[in-house]
Amino acid sequence: MYDINAINLPKNHPRLKSLLIRDKLVAGFKNGLVVQQGLMAHGRGEAFDYLLGEKSMKYAKLAIKTAAAVLFLAKLPIISVNGNIAALCPREIVELSNITNTKIEVNLFYHNEKRKQAIANNLKKHGAKEILGMKIESHKHIKGLESSRKVVDKDGIYKADVVLVPLEDGDRCIKLKQLGKTIITFDLNPFSRTSQTADITIIDNVVRGIIELIRISKKISNKDDKYLRKIVNDFDNKKNIALSILQINNNLLKNIINYE
Ligand code: PTJ
Q1: Between 226 and 8, residue with greater pLDDT
Q2: Total domains present in the chain
Q3: Which residue in 24, 111, 123, 233 is deepest, having the highest Cβ count within 10 Å?
Q4: Is 48 in the pocket of ligand 1 (CB under 6 A)?
Q5: Which of 167, 171, 193, 212 to mutate to test the pocket of ligand 1 (most atoms within 8 A of CB)?
Q6: How far apart, in whole angstroms, are the C-alpha atoms of residue 34 and residue 24?
Q7: Pocket of ligand 1, candidates 84, 112, 147: which has the most ligand atoms within 8 Å of its Cβ, to mutate?
Q8: Is residue 24 in a domain?
Q9: Is residue 227 a part of any domain in this protein?
Q10: Would you state the pLDDT for residue 254?
């Protein structure tokens, strides 16, 4: 087992947080949770995080509050877990699942049974009781989807009304939407097909955003449906994405002004 604590990073390094996140993924890769391509996907995410100033924008916080309300209003909400998520925030996934009564399903783009099992074991180590997507007899195929993500659990994503898909590929997001499901995503790239297709797009690093999602879920957990529905009705995802892109643009312009 690769020991993340053995990595010796200077504690006063100005980019310590970002380096620690990288190390989680490297450890996840060495321990069989993360696929090589996941490391590259993280690199793309990091680049966008830089443009956000590596902090959660107010638009991300608004999307997160809406996501919490949607999870509470759902009949059968599911969190879809891939290799990167399992390595980055397993404890938070389990905590969110407990607070919002959302089931966890492992679903991989680069399918591999051994890695799937390692991911499930890691989630169990962090307190997960039930993990969907593991039993062959429960597998169902989403018609019209070519990638391995088409294999879903009949008691999970297949019949879910709400699916949280962090770090997703666009194809499945589009397909799940066509099937009438409400989709929540964490994606640092506001231009990705997933971001553009989802119902609630959280443009934030999942490592930061999921902590806020847990916090706000705890805060609104005892609110009634009328209160929750108002949050959802007041939210405009397209507008929120547009404002996030404007914020990124302003961040870039600030740098030019500083240069002049
Ligand atoms: O474990 P698997 O086999 O299911 O594969 C997982 C990956 C992530 C490799 C797979 O889903 C994939 O290739 O994803 P994409 O198409 O690269 O999309 C990932 C998206 O997540 C990109 O838009 C990235 O910018 C974004 N992203 C990467 N890291 C983060 C992120 N968004 C939020 N938080 C991050 N930490």
Answers
A1: 226
A2: 1
A3: 123
A4: yes
A5: 167
A6: 10
A7: 84
A8: no
A9: yes
A10: 87
